[in-house]
TrEMBL record, chains A, B, C, D:
<dbReference type="GO" id="GO:0019568">
    <property type="term" value="P:arabinose catabolic process"/>
</dbReference>
<keyword id="KW-0862">Zinc</keyword>
<dbReference type="GO" id="GO:0016832">
    <property type="term" value="F:aldehyde-lyase activity"/>
</dbReference>
<protein>
    <recommendedName>
        <fullName>L-ribulose-5-phosphate 4-epimerase</fullName>
        <ecNumber>5.1.3.4</ecNumber>
    </recommendedName>
</protein>
<comment type="pathway">
    <text>Carbohydrate degradation; L-arabinose degradation via L-ribulose; D-xylulose 5-phosphate from L-arabinose (bacterial route): step 3/3.</text>
</comment>
<dbReference type="GO" id="GO:0046872">
    <property type="term" value="F:metal ion binding"/>
</dbReference>
<dbReference type="GO" id="GO:0008742">
    <property type="term" value="F:L-ribulose-phosphate 4-epimerase activity"/>
</dbReference>
<keyword id="KW-0054">Arabinose catabolism</keyword>
<feature type="domain" description="Class II aldolase/adducin N-terminal">
    <location>
        <begin position="10"/>
        <end position="200"/>
    </location>
</feature>
<dbReference type="InterPro" id="IPR036409">
    <property type="entry name" value="Aldolase_II/adducin_N_sf"/>
</dbReference>
<comment type="function">
    <text>Involved in the degradation of L-arabinose. Catalyzes the interconversion of L-ribulose 5-phosphate (LRu5P) and D-xylulose 5-phosphate (D-Xu5P) via a retroaldol/aldol mechanism (carbon-carbon bond cleavage analogous to a class II aldolase reaction).</text>
</comment>
<keyword id="KW-0413">Isomerase</keyword>
<dbReference type="GO" id="GO:0005829">
    <property type="term" value="C:cytosol"/>
</dbReference>
<keyword id="KW-0119">Carbohydrate metabolism</keyword>
<dbReference type="Pfam" id="PF00596">
    <property type="entry name" value="Aldolase_II"/>
</dbReference>
<comment type="similarity">
    <text>Belongs to the aldolase class II family. AraD/FucA subfamily.</text>
</comment>
<keyword id="KW-0479">Metal-binding</keyword>
Amino acid sequence: MVKDLNEIKKRVCEANKTLPSHGLVKFTWGNVSEVCYELGCIVIKPSGVDYDKLRPEDMVVTDLDGNIIEGDLNPSSDLPTHVALYKAWPEIGGIVHTHSTEAVGWAQAGRDIPIYGTTHADCFFGPIPCARSLTEEEVNTAYEKETGTVILEEFTNRKLDPLAVPGIVVRNHGPFTWGKTPEQAVYNSAVLEEVAKMSRLTEQINPRVQPVPKHVMDKHYYRKHGANAYYGQKS
Amino acid sequence: MVKDLNEIKKRVCEANKTLPSHGLVKFTWGNVSEVCYELGCIVIKPSGVDYDKLRPEDMVVTDLDGNIIEGDLNPSSDLPTHVALYKAWPEIGGIVHTHSTEAVGWAQAGRDIPIYGTTHADCFFGPIPCARSLTEEEVNTAYEKETGTVILEEFTNRKLDPLAVPGIVVRNHGPFTWGKTPEQAVYNSAVLEEVAKMSRLTEQINPRVQPVPKHVMDKHYYRKHGANAYYGQKS
Amino acid sequence: MVKDLNEIKKRVCEANKTLPSHGLVKFTWGNVSEVCYELGCIVIKPSGVDYDKLRPEDMVVTDLDGNIIEGDLNPSSDLPTHVALYKAWPEIGGIVHTHSTEAVGWAQAGRDIPIYGTTHADCFFGPIPCARSLTEEEVNTAYEKETGTVILEEFTNRKLDPLAVPGIVVRNHGPFTWGKTPEQAVYNSAVLEEVAKMSRLTEQINPRVQPVPKHVMDKHYYRKHGANAYYGQKS
Amino acid sequence: MVKDLNEIKKRVCEANKTLPSHGLVKFTWGNVSEVCYELGCIVIKPSGVDYDKLRPEDMVVTDLDGNIIEGDLNPSSDLPTHVALYKAWPEIGGIVHTHSTEAVGWAQAGRDIPIYGTTHADCFFGPIPCARSLTEEEVNTAYEKETGTVILEEFTNRKLDPLAVPGIVVRNHGPFTWGKTPEQAVYNSAVLEEVAKMSRLTEQINPRVQPVPKHVMDKHYYRKHGANAYYGQKS
């Protein structure tokens, strides 16, 4: 089945519009993209356009290197970060970046989001990593591309699977999430924001709290993921 | 009067739909059930279905052991926890499980929610207990059933009456509440979430705060419950 | 001009309905009353009735001692507190009681709400006092009436003017506010809740913060109150 | 092109109405103005009028010294602060004052809002200053005018450019922001409120956090401002 570019544009447009309804963005502070290997393209939100004015035909289409193929508007300035992640991780199909409040709290604090319970384990198999801040050289050469490099470096160093830990917070900046589809990437953004808040409250209530036991984390993650998952309905 | 199964399905469906309107759930993260001893059944939400798409005919009907009698969809994966509580406590008629944010904060922190005032005492006669986390063996044999066992163990050890303290938080997981009806169980979930927040704020404002005096707790609880209650209207 | 009882019922009903829209109550956790000396009556919300079902004809009318004159429903269980305050303070015309979250935080913490800025000073001329918890004897004899006595004791001991400091939090319980009219009493409840939150955030950001200088407090209070007020429009 | 006074009134009215929709004000606690040098006037919200009742014809028009030219209503009591800022900074075209909760938290705490990340740097080139509280003499002579003087003193002492740092919090009081237009001033108020919250959460999560590195701050600010900006669409 050949993929339909108009369907992708429609889907990316819709996924972008869900960001404000999930409370993840103010103004134009977030973007969603989808990659399609059959068509050899990435479809992404135009930069600085309000979500409620966004139409499918406003989406910007680029090749897999981020060169614009179609669209009159500038793509999101974060496009090079999306390109870097898609190139490294062919298993993912959608990426989301936001400045959601609680996630930014951890990004600015420069800390991994600890895994304290099952809400977190249902979606992220372990702590949500905090990537280091970019160096002056990285910022001044290709800032948005290097943001992608820093994320990939963190996953390589920690030997993490991007589908098992589908998100990160970049120090001094904010969260990036991904998934097999743009819809899953948005879902993961919403979960990241919620568990970021839960972890903050948890430490406030008990400053000496320890992470969730590994067997509980394993159980909850595999209840929802993999061959033996039994949550939800068979699709 | 013979109970009408369709009425129960309708009531359970409606009770599930109130979870997002009370701000207690995101996505599909919560479930409500009702037990009926006359008909010998439990009616519960199907697993992973959105609240706004839920129809009475989607509810799953099981016998009192949790074996499916009616319904094409999988029941909530937490069904065995509901079954365990109904078996132990014939006085309750409805159960609710959510991942509401403030309650999860206490669950993850591994602390009982202290009773600091009358809002709490109006509904819960004492601190809201935090049950221990499950052992590796419990998790790996029958996780959801053992979650029920751990809750019952906590109530037995502390000699608590489930109608006087109609809820608990399970360590590293989240809140479970119950009541004579599903509506009461939902009400108790909403109160638990609110007093979880109030207790957190109270400790932030005064880290050395002490629990409410027993005579105030008694007064407020019995103003609303039991033979001498005088709050509200005679029904 | 003779006061019209139906107008008062309508006003009290409307004032009660604004409590949830200001975010001050959940379920039925709050009540508003008005006193009328010409008609010799108090009009108050019935106990335990939902705000969205409240109609003017549901309001309960009592004499100035709280004896029911008119109405088929039970009055708010807090009626004796309202009666006690009206008897002591003929200058007030309306009273509000809620369990609003941030105010309850201070009540449960057992602390006065400090005055840290102009938002507070625009409405409350000084800290918002926290009244002591009731003794066992007070609770067991006439709980709701004694709640009023404890509030009055606090104002007498501190030599406070109830129109200059139109509210209090009662320890382990929650806020009471009042004003010349029910509308003003509701406004004061909303301001109390907001400054309760602001004071909490202020102490979180700077644990060694000092109260607002007296000359700033005086200026802001008298900008809005008294003969030389110049905020707003001439009515 | 001669400016149209009716257009300005309409714009100022609309900008005022966006304050509650951005969650920046309760009741009547905020005001927006615009200055026009061609027409030699300032257009500002009337004092104490509800936002939902505000009509363009209700706006108050003054000369550049704040003397009323047109309008039956009293102008916002903060008018003299607006006048002082417009006189000192001809590069700004609109001013906003609110009592937004998180910003007031920092104002009351008497602290600059530290710059911990890119959300802040996208809009404010450095920490958001906290101006000192007014002296007793300043309060008693010309309070609102002196509030402007204190803001200007802070910017002069710190050698700050009002378009690079388009806002401040005044100690014990609250935030003032500005911009080339009223719309930009409102946007800056919303960003100030959001970064005030983010900075509070950041310090809660990591009490020893350090400010964002200067090269990241520079990058984000200049991505959106100045000749080399590349965020958004070419207008």
